[in-house]
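DM from R.C. (forwarded with permission)

"hey, sorry to bug you on a friday — could you get me a structure for this? deadline for the figure draft is monday and I only need the backbone to look sensible"
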Amino acid sequence: MTSTDPILSARGVNVRHGALQVLHDVDLDICRGEIVTIVGPNGSGKSTLLRTLIGAIRPDSGTLTRAPGLHIGYVPQKLHIDPTLPITVTRFLGLPRRHPAAQIADALHHAGLPDLAQRQMSALSGGQFQRVLLARALLENPDILMLDEPTQGLDQRGSAAFYLRIAEIRREMGCAVLMVSHELHVVMSASDRVICLNGHVCCSGTPEVVASAPEYRALFGTGTQGALALYRHTHDHGHDHDHPQEHAPVEDHAI
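My reply, with the result:
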């Protein structure tokens, strides 16, 4: 499923916010079909890097290369909707432009919300709201899905269920996934590759390689809080994915 040809590349990317150097000489490649997670401490430039790759921020120097016709789906860190606004999930997904009903239904299916098309946005749980944002990104039929800490505010089990859904989307749609996350204990199990960022790329590789890298351990330590715990999940595709207790980890292997 994973191609060795990059669909998105950065070379020598530098980004400044005023006098502050946020990103310095960042190089990375994202290939079709792989799941890549960016981790790093607060203020390390994770969200800035994602927004730069999307095109929302112009780098001060360096180059970005995208495959011709590349479609990007983006799930933001947070989105506020006035709770008094009467708007259904279907209508929300039709903004700013309408989509065929079948396309909306397909996106909701992939996001794990096949029966909530007519639900009011104000009536959604936190996990359901994040999945609607995910469905919105999937409407673009993305070649690469980018997510900026999409499970912020969810508990650990809810986060695990959300990341399981992301892995299923990768299998079903064949898209690449690039995630920013601070949830080391959950997200690493869904990643093919990890990029550790602290203004620059400190280290990268498989979760096991990054977990043992001195650069990673200097940032996160080697104890329980810093270790990468690789969860092995069992789940029934017939279950409602908004009930994360059905996706509890059955093994916890700390590296």
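R.C.: lifesaver. The first strand starts at residue 6 and ends at 17.
me: no worries. The first helix runs from residue 46 to 54.
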